[in-house]
Amino acid sequence: MTRETTVEAKAVGKTFGHGTSAFRALDNVSIRIDRGEFFTLLGPSGCGKTTLLRCIAGFESPSVGTILLSGRDITAEPPNRRPVNTVFQSYALFPHLTVTQNVAFGLEMLGRPKAQVAATVARMLALVKLEAFAGRKPAQLSGGQQQRVALARALAPAPEVLLLDEPLSALDLKLRKEMQSELKRLQHETGITFVFVTHDQEEALTMSDRVGVMSAGKLLQVGTPREIYNNPVSRFVADFIGETNFLPGVARGGVVRLASGEAVAERVANGPVTVAVRPEQVRIAAAGTRGIPALVARCVYFGTDTHVHMTLEGGVEVVARVQSPPSGDAGFAPGAKVVVLFAPDSVQVLDD
Amino acid sequence: MSIATEAGRERQTARNGWLLSAPALFILTAGAIGPLLIVLVYSFLTPAEYSGVEWVFSGEAWFRVFWKTDIFDGTVSLNDTHLAIFWRSVKLSVTTTLITFAVGLPTAWFIATRPPDQRSLWLFLITIPFWTNLLIRTFAILEVIRNDGILNSMLLGMGIITEPIQLVFTDTAVLIGMTYVYLPLMVLPLFAAIDRFDMRLLEAGYDLYASRWAVLRRVILPIIRPGIVAGSILVFVPSLGAYVTPRVLGGGNNMMIGNFIELQFGQGRNWPLGSALSMLLLIVVTVALLFYVRAANTDRRDV
Amino acid sequence: MSDRSFSVARVPGFATIAVTAFVLLYLPILTMVGYSFNASTSVSEWGGFSLQWYRLAWENETVKAATARSLIIASFAAVISTAVATMAALGTTRRGSFRGQTPIYVMINTPLMVPEIVTAVALLILFGVVRQVTGYQGLGYLILAHSAFCIPFAYLPIRARLEGMDLTLETAAADLYATPWATFRRITLPILTPGIMAGAMLAFVISLDDVIITEFVKSAGQDTLPTYMLGALRRQLTPEVNALSTALLALTVMLLTAFFLTTRKRN
């Protein structure tokens, strides 16, 4: 399958300020985003994901590196010449214009004929189900409706790429879930490349075709949600996405062993390593059977799941996520002696 | 490269700022700021016989601001006429500031603690006098306090007094008038400060056993201090330079420095002395404003 | 009045002082308005309702000329000061601070800080010289002086409006293919309009109210309404002045009401 690239960043770096107060927001970031894909930039606040988005939109110019759009170098182009539109975190709806006028704005600026503008606006309002609100001003709309107007406005000029800067962060949980599936639907129907920025790992995993994880201005890993979750390349990625147990281990003679001596994985290179296991991959068995001896410290009830916190020899804490039984009591009393087992292929070995 | 572009952007912001401000600055220079320099120059010249100046350098005007020379024996002594006018100006301005604060604080507090739907109405009521012509308000107060005005007519009618109280053309009349016309200038900044004041701090104060007086003195007043300083400056500065109110209510014998300056450019025919007095007034006002800026900045550091 | 509940925001005596202050603030103004309709020639006695003082003022050619002059000067001053203040506000607000910003602020606000009497004598001296050199005696001096001291009043509401404006809106316009000029005309200017209107109205009121600077700057026979009233006071206080004051007051109240309505509606 040949993939066509829409947006490409080549060795992009961005430094704000100068001298001692200089701050490196992007550090040698290279990325290719395919046409028609839902790509998410994920990372904690200040990791540079928004800066990268603003470089693609043209609101910031990279200090070094180039931005390509469908193979064309657009690094020096002002935002009003780039066929790229943005959904802003604050929506940035023009308060003095109606919903219709907001959605029509980009088309008018492109000099499209009046009839075509009217037709496209009508189509866009239908797409986001806001036909009934066409004559209202943004201040007369709810947060979710404003969000839809922002989407319609950015989609109306049919950009090559739609950039979304944490667009769901201002919505409450229920509305956010609704808008997540709404966004997927819109992306599917329009076929436009979406570049979505978020710090919410769940949002990233559920919505994206591919995710790029960023930290401190660097792009750490790019992959499908499954790859990112199951095969994190570093302790940061493993820790930022989902919950993970980190256990100290040593690789020697092709085998990785924990402090207890248990062999958990294979590895060629010798040296100290970190073993990462997701809580849902930790099994608990009765003491005396094969496994790593542990003491139950406490249980935390989460409804569908119960988290069992245990201490291994040497004081390392391990958390197991088990399904709560109908009674609600998982049956692990604090102080009980148990053994833990890791499901096959569930163990990730990370370099220290 | 990024350093160059960012410095370039800063330079461009500065250039745009100056270019866009240029027309305003030009009008201000021609119609307000530039002429002040001419006043400074004039204060060092010699008065001409009728009006205007001779272009001869002299420190005489500045000397005469504070001192006088006896025409007969040439001895130098402090100019008590001038000093009396300065003293009256300062005394009346300080008193006006104090009275407007004493009345303005409760008024501003009252407005700020109204329910939200009533608040803008009360605010509007204080804003109307604020923007109403000073002359009109001075006339209005004159109608009340003049010998055959409402106040005296009422008191006479009720038999409380048998002869009208002579208020007009006294310092008291000027004080009443200035308090009346400058009160809104005190209330508005106080209101702005109280409006920002977090009323939950009062609950915290009372919760920690403070009395009403202690809450006022230890919590409210320190926090709204920027408003107090701003209001005091807004009242004190125009009071010190007041011209209309003392002219209408004080008459010729109760001059403040503003009227005395005018006199030098009119009947006094001493433009250099008038210029020196203007500069003196400007200096005092500038010192007061610097005090304000420092007080405001200290406050920002504290918070 | 005994209320058992303890209200933290209530300070005993404050409400009484405040209401008294409002009454004392309005009593003289309302008295003046009332007496402007007085039939009696005496200022202090009520002789029945009459519009004679308004008629007298209306028939007075000097008053008519002064009124027209006041309105002309105020219109020019409002337009000029608002135009330059809008530009200055655009140049000095947002986009970060720059070297020289503080001097610009100080210069724009100078008319608020310098006592009016000082500016008045300064302009008396300067324009005296200019008159001698050029021989020009027209309204230009008054318009220039009024435009200058109206600038800070026009600048403040415009700047406040600009500072309250979300900069992302301009970014969004650029993202939607608007050129910088289109962004200004379609987004920035419409959002700024209430501030500009407010600035113009305040400048108009301030110009209309000025006494001191006009008194010193005017050429012979260039009385505005306020300086005419000040002069009338020197001659004799007649209810005609009450009528003029009331008319001017009504104009101010009307403009202020319009100002409040425009600023509130847009918020």
Please tag this protein with its features.
A: 352 residues, alpha+beta, 6-stranded mixed beta sheet, 5-stranded antiparallel beta sheet, 8 helices, 24% helix, 36% strand, elongated, C: mainly alpha, MetI-like fold
Report Rg of chain A.
25 Å
- Helical content band of chain C: over 70%
Q: Hey, roughly how much beta strand do the residues of chain C contain?
A: under 5%
Number of strands of chain C: 0
The secondary-structure element order of chain C is HHHHHHHHHHH
Q: Please provide the ordered H/E string of secondary-structure elements of chain A.
A: EEEHEEEHHHEHEHEEHHEEEEEEEEEE
Count of all domains of chain C:
1
Main sheet strand line-up of chain A: 6-7-8-3-9-10
Cα radius of gyration of chain C in angstroms: 23 Å
List segments of chain A where confidence is low: pLDDT < 50 over at least 5 consecutive residues: none
The low-pLDDT segments of chain C are none
Helix content of chain A: 10-25%
Helix-and-strand structural type of chain A: alpha+beta
**Biggest interface: chains and residue counts?**
B-C, 92 and 91 residues
**Main sheet: strands, sense, barrel of chain C:** none
CATH class of chain C: Mainly Alpha
**Gap from first CA to last CA of chain A:** 37 Å
Strand content of chain A: 35-45%
Structure description:
The complex is a heterotrimer of chains A (352), B (303) and C (267). Chain A is of the alpha+beta class. Chain A is 24% helix and 36% strand. The longest helix of chain A is centred in the middle third of the chain and has 18 residues, at 173-190. Chain B contains 13 helices and four strands. A two-stranded antiparallel sheet of chain B has the order 1-2. The two termini of chain B are 39 Å apart. Chain C has one domain: MetI-like fold (Orthogonal Bundle), CATH 1.10.3720.10. Chain C is built from eleven helices and no strands. Chain C is globular and about 70 Å long. The mean pLDDT of chain C is 87. Chains in contact: A-B, A-C, B-C. Chains B and C meet through helix 1, helix 3, helix 4, helix 5 and helix 7 of B and helix 1, helix 3, helix 4, helix 5 and helix 6 of C.
Helix and strand layout, with pairings?
The complex is a heterotrimer of chains A (352), B (303) and C (267).
Chain A: E1 5-16, E2 23-34, E3 38-42, H1 49-57, E4 64-69, E5 72-73, E6 84-87, H2 99-109, H3 114-127, H4 143-155, E7 161-165, H5 173-190, E8 193-198, H6 201-207, E9 210-215, E10 218-223, H7 225-230, H8 235-240, E11 245-252, E12 255-258, E13 263-266, E14 271-277, E15 282-286, E16 292-301, E17 305-312, E18 317-323, E19 337-342, E20 347-351
Helix pairs in contact in A: 2-3, 2-4, 3-4
Chain B: H1 2-42, E1 46-47, E2 53-54, H2 60-66, E3 67-69, E4 76-78, H3 80-112, H4 116-131, H5 134-145, H6 150-157, H7 171-196, H8 200-207, H9 212-223, H10 225-240, H11 244-250, H12 257-265, H13 271-302
Antiparallel strand pairs in B: 1-2, 3-4
Chain C: H1 14-35, H2 52-59, H3 61-92, H4 101-113, H5 116-134, H6 140-164, H7 168-175, H8 180-209, H9 212-217, H10 225-235, H11 239-266
Helix pairs in contact in C: 2-11, 3-6, 3-8, 4-6, 6-8, 7-8, 8-11
